[in-house]
Amino acid sequence: MRIVTAAEMRKLDEEAIHRIGIASLVLMENAGTQVVRLLQDKFGSLRDKRVHILVGPGNNGGDGLVVARHLLNLGARPKVYLTHPAEKCSRDCQVNLEVYRRLDGEIVSLTTSQRRNLKFSLSLADIILDALLGTGAQGPLRPELAELVSVVNEVRRPVVAVDVPTGVDATTGEVAGPAVQADFTAALGFLKLGCLFYPGRSFVGDFEVLDIGIPHRLAEDIQRFLLEPEDLAKLPPRPPWGHKGTFGHTLVVAGSQGMAGAAALCAKAVYRGGGGMVTLAVPASIVGRFPPDEVIVKPVPDTPEGTLGSPSIDTLRELLKGKDVLAVGPGLSNRPEVKQIVEYLLRTWTGPAVIDADGLNVLAEEFVLSVPQEQRRRWVLTPHPGEMGRLVGQSAQAVNARRGTAGQELASRWGVTVVLKGAPTVISGLERTYISSAGTSGMGSAGMGDVLTGVIAAFLAQGMEPVEAAALGAYVHGLAGERAAEKGSRGLTASDCLAAVQAILD
Question: What residue ranges do the domains of the chain occupy?
Answer without folding.
Answer: 3-222, 229-505
